[in-house]
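Lab notes, practical 5.
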Amino acid sequence: MVQRYDVGARMSEMAVHNGVCYLAGQVAAGGSVGIADQTREVLAAIDALLAKAGTDKTKILRAQIFLADIADFPGMNAVWDTWVVAGHTPPRATVQAALAKPEWKVEIVVTAAL
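Output from the prediction step:
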């Protein structure tokens, strides 16, 4: 059985199947401007979605990070490093990509176990 969360006309924010949570790419929706604020907002959204499914960031299996400008890598990492739990850092990839809206600086996709 597939459970979908925050289902919209185009996409769901999360799907859960066979004990695995698949999150859609999370972006800053609150008007944050800088990379640090946008990263904090995105990570808070990830925390909230994982909590809805009954899991948390210590069970992330993989993270994919998309930056509009790779020069923001140190600023994003500074926030990421305070968010992840020591001993539970997931496999991760970070790339520069053209994001769907020009104001978005970071988009993060995670897959997590229940």
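Observations recorded by the TA: The first strand starts at residue 3 and ends at 7. The chain has a mean pLDDT of 97.
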